């Protein structure tokens, strides 16, 4: 049978048919009242998901473009920046700051560990930083960082906090204002259930002070330009109109379900997945205390190449799991349960994963992992 | 989360995105060369799936319309017709013949039993019939009948054989010419993976002799009109153009996979489902020897209303199972594995079924049914 493509990667995630339908509607012109109405609705809903009273700008670019917008608008050559690195995306944030001429101190916590807040405080005490760069959900290591605690420190020590929430926003709780996040960046193709192509950025008043003194070259990713256009609910350059239309519907779905319910659902799916992994005798990449609610990393069994397993699952069952990045390549696989994934999807994917493991000679009691996940789902997890 | 609607009913079945995409293309006019080309392609592919050298007419109506076309064109008032009844759809075929004035002898085999070919032969020996009406796959009882054996009898005793293959064609082997089926009827929304709205009918030269002497009123469902139009690859009345476009793609998918592979896949999925049902200690509706490869019927546990279980699965997990019809209402549920259903779908559905059974107090070892299905799927069933 022609395979059903089943995305269990941490973005792009499956697009709900309601969202696909909205994107397939006839295009509207982007310099029209219709577009302004769309952007107005959308921005109001984004504020709720961001947990902010500030404006949220929608940029037509990927999440990396949003991260660059955060850096390019704030960092001037020579600025001291502290980058908290817990994996590949933390490294990328640090690299961006270097490219814009910052003097970057990278605090590396080791792949698989979360940010150690005590170490961050020690640094902030010993040295004045203009900004701290942090990753909320580090998909490469399936670790979630304590942005709330980091935000307390950056406020106390007078640094701006720039957060990459690309793979978390809409799936994991975050409160830009309450937690003191000055620039919060996310993207469309993760927990927000929309195809790639949009980044969203919120900016605090403290961040605007820095942005207004920005000297780095910035044009397409200029936040002042985005702010100016937003006064008319417009964009400085051509927006990806159909993705705006899809995001409008996706945000309705999220807000209709209720943010607390959405977060609880992701936590329960992570618990179910982790219970399945343990029941199969496999090792989890991230410890429970900092485990991501949206993606679960698993060490391949001794002697098995995780990428061979992934290839088999894709070829035989259409199930695409994520692999390991950089030093984890071939050694881990990652199961995303982010966005539009339901119990049938998760149990079915775990079911074919068990078959795949068995085909590679790993001793599997068929159904054992599924049963552990079922028990969590049937009980509603520890949350409900 | 907004539920994913998951159809595990014996039609309409899930529509592949390739088919949905074809149906969403701009409409073509139905009196154009483009439509004639489409119908020509489609009819050629249908002959392969029907196993016939004869023409196959595509009517814009549901499967019942196709069954009526078979009866209305062949049966004259007073004709003796033998109806082989193994469930609700066998009853419908008999009822249609009565409505058209036939003297119908209904051979009832009891719900859950297949046609007993010896009894059919005894009847045909003792009485001359113009036509025999048979159901290939009786979805109401999840039983498949031996059309090949029935066809040998109807040829030997000089009766026409009219077969309802609405829920089997494209999922279960059938060979119109080799098996001596004079009129074979199917519909778009079952194993052919297209939304409802089309019936397809093949007609043998023997059947044409009867049709040409037909005296029943027939207009929209006239097979002579369909035959005449097919000489120009057109239809007598407005066809459901977008469904034709979808069927064109669906038939490509089936023929690309290969009919033998499609049939084997359905048999394996039935084996997997039946193994799961047994592992859960539940009773199957149909015995193995005549079990349908495309839909599996299961007795609800003692004291449980099958429809309560079905409502829970729909509400909580978006999984729609079929219920029992007529005397089986509330007593059975049916799991369709017809058409565009893959291993992830089936294992996921069995996983939530187990949770549902447990929620109603039935003692379930979570994962036990899934494990039995996994074992069949991992081994490729007994077929491969």
From TrEMBL, chains A, B:
Keyword Transferase appears in the UniProt entry: yes
Positions of substrate binding: 334
Pfam assignment, any one: Aminotran_5
Domain Aminotransferase class V per the UniProt entry, residue ranges: 10-326
Sites bearing N6-(pyridoxal phosphate)lysine, chain numbering: 190
GO BP annotation list: glycine biosynthetic process, by transamination of glyoxylate
Transferase among keywords: yes
Cofactors, names only: pyridoxal 5'-phosphate
Family: Belongs to the class-V pyridoxal-phosphate-dependent aminotransferase family.
Alphabetical list of PANTHER family matching this protein: ALANINE--GLYOXYLATE AMINOTRANSFERASE (PTHR21152:SF40), AMINOTRANSFERASE CLASS V (PTHR21152)
The name this protein goes by in its record: Aspartate aminotransferase-like enzyme
Native source organism of the sequence: Thermodesulfitimonas autotrophica
